[in-house]
Design brief:
The chain is an alpha+beta fold and 393 residues long. The protein folds into three domains: 95 residues, Integrase, DNA-binding domain (Double Stranded RNA Binding Domain, 2-Layer Sandwich), CATH 3.30.160.390; 80 residues; 159 residues, Intergrase catalytic core (hpI Integrase, Chain A), CATH 1.10.443. It is built from 15 helices and seven strands. The strands form two sheets. A four-stranded antiparallel sheet has the order 1-2-3-4, with helices on one face. Strands 5-6-7 form a three-stranded antiparallel sheet, with no helix packed on it. Strand 1 and strand 2 form a beta hairpin. Helix 4 runs antiparallel to helix 5, helix 9 runs antiparallel to helix 11 and helix 13 runs antiparallel to helix 14. The radius of gyration is 35 Å and the shape is elongated.
Length: 393
Amino acid sequence: MKLTNRLIEAMSGPGPGSTAKAKEVSDSVVTGLRIICSAGTAQRKFFYFHYTFHGKRDKLKIGEFPAIGIEQARKQALAWRAAIDEEINPKEQRDHVRAMPTFSEYAMEKYLPYAKQHKSSWDMDESKLRLHLIPKFGSRRISDIALPDVEMYLGQIKSSHSPSTANRHLALLSKMFKLALSWKHIKHNPCLGIAKFKEPAGRTDSLSAEDLKKMLKAMDNEPNKQAVGALRLLLLTGTRREEALQSRWEHIDLDNARWFLPKTKNGKTRHVVLNPEAVELLRNHPRISGNPWVFPGRDPSRPLNNPRKAFTRILDAAGLPHLRIHSLRHVFASFAVSSGASLYQVQQLLGHASPNMTQRYAHLADDVLRQASSSVSSIYSQAKAGAEASSGA
């Protein structure tokens, strides 16, 4: 019969004396849709969808009446019927959806274990996930997250943080969904087609020679000598913070003034040329017998974790504005370019994989070129004056 909510509500199970456990009525509107009313006093009523797939008969429970009405039941039955027409078994499709992990489950059980094995910066991914992404998407199944959801989230991060931060979040989400796609958790990447935000020019925090003098004087009075040693090495080499903190004595060759980095940010190895001040710093830096770390932490078995607090005290004592530790890398590069080093040389010194990162110091290179051009101008002026004097004579 053509089922209605009123008919279903009035429907009763098998009568007294019947051996049937339930009464079943088929809907005449949608083939395969049935309502089943149980026997006994409970009289519970459930919608089922019966179908045949590749010659095999099967059924799926839709839900209980009246929580689900006839129109909702028909809609679900028609969706499953459409899946069958596309050669998709609706039971397998439903089981796949039920097995679909939530974003939180996927992040913690699938992605992070992968990142720990393949990324040196996995801890930064863990921080983004813990502080932002899981609170936002954690309970949602990853297959339910669509492009508009990602775009809205990135817009919020851009407003609360910066375009650069939003782009880092986009890169993380894109990688996560790309892996989910290859692992057959989802059928498409919701990040495809999302353009990056335009980022401002990279920061090139620097110090004047007078500022550097104040900083070095404040370092002399800082009690945390391990932190001071690490900060001085960053100033003298332009290496990244973790490269300095993870440095081991076995990788430092003071006789040849070379420092081997077994693993850099881009995953490659490289050698750092040590200048005389860096060599002297490392020669005079105290060693703990049997300890491999150049800068051991409070727990000598582990390297120094983060000299941020010591750096803040140094800046305060020197009366300097607060800088990031990463700014010491910019200080090194700025002094190198101002002293006449080419951008190519600075790229090699910093270990940049691409010259694009080094272009931020191009304006300093222009100043060096301007000074060189001014020297030619001075010679020209002197020659011109001499020529004019000769002509006058």
